[in-house]
Amino acid sequence: MNDEDKKIEKLKAEIKEELQKESKKRSIFSGLKFKTKLIMFLLAIIIIAVVASGIYLKLNKENDKQVLLNFGFKDVGELVTQEWYGRILKDKSKDRKFFDLFPIPGTQSRLVFSLDVEVTAGVDFREIEWTKNDAKKVIYVKMPKAKVYKYYQVPNTFISYVEDESWFTNMTSEWRHKLEDQVVEDGKKKAVELGLLEKADKNAQSIITQMINSNEMTKDYKVEFEYK
User: Fold this and answer.
1) CA 209 – CA 200 distance, rounded (Å)
2) Which tens digit of pLDDT belongs to each residue from 116-140?
3) Minimal CA–CA distance to 65: which of 178, 182, 195, 217?
4) CA end-to-end span of the chain
5) Which 3 state secondary structure label does DSSP give 102?
6) Domain of 103?
7) Rg (CA), the chain
């Protein structure tokens, strides 16, 4: 092989080597390009998932708050918002009468006693209705008036001061129980006279306002009340 042929063979070898290097570079670049596209695709999926999750959580959070405001009152039921406690004194006597015209001397029986009475009043929260004005930031609450919930004799508070029983007029257990029931009724009337129901209404308003203002959606809202 002469010098000219050697030069040609050397040139071919160099060209072949250059082509191999170029092919290798293209293969690496193609792989990098594929990997870059794959990474971008995965990032896009992750971003979409994060955004979708945020929207879902936000909607659920707002929905939970709305449910709390919607059904919070109904879950409370009938709530006692005011109590009255007092001791009532009763002085009662009875005797026999001559043809129901005038008492017969020496036949009078007398009982003086006291007992404690407890009276509770409240509002049925299940009957509460409300509307919301977002423009004015006002919650309008329509609710029933408070009513007496329970009234009863407090156990073990009966104290007897006078028990003067005549041989002719017995103080039967039935008569005593009726007197105790009358005292409980007197306690109920006294509690109402002293403003039990008005205080119960006021406390119910305070509780409702706190429930509304504890909600993130309506914490800055004013509450206006109306009675049914």
Assistant:
1) 14
2) 999 999 999 889 898 888 899 999 9
3) 217
4) 119
5) strand
6) 77-227
7) 45
Report the residue count for the chain.
228
**From 100-109, 153-162, 212-221, the region with the lowest mean pLDDT:** 100-109
Q: Do 136 and 204 reside in the same domain of the chain?
A: yes
Residue type, 220: D
Q: Are 93 and 16 in the same domain?
A: no
CA-based torsion, 223, 81, 150, 85: positive or negative: negative
SS3 39: helix
Average pLDDT over residues 211-218: 84
| Domain end (from 74, 98, 131) | 74
Number of separate domains in the chain: 2
Mean pLDDT of 83-92: 91
Domain match, 69 and 81 both:
no
Residues 123 and 212 in one domain: yes
pLDDT at residue 5 is higher than 60: no
Tokens of 193: 């006279």
Same domain, 64 and 84: no
Same domain, residue pair 134 and 61: no
- Give me the helices (H) in the chain, please: 3-76, 173-193, 196-213
In the block, tokens 């009337």 appear at: 189
Q: How many CA atoms lie within 13 A of 154 on its CB side?
A: 16
Band (pLDDT 50/70/90 cuts) for residue 56 is: very low
**Which pLDDT score is estimated for 94?**
63
In the predicted structure, residue 163 carries a pLDDT above the cut 90: no
CA distance readout (Å), 102 to 25, 53, 107, 170: 131, 90, 12, 18
Distance from chain centroid for Cα 86: 30
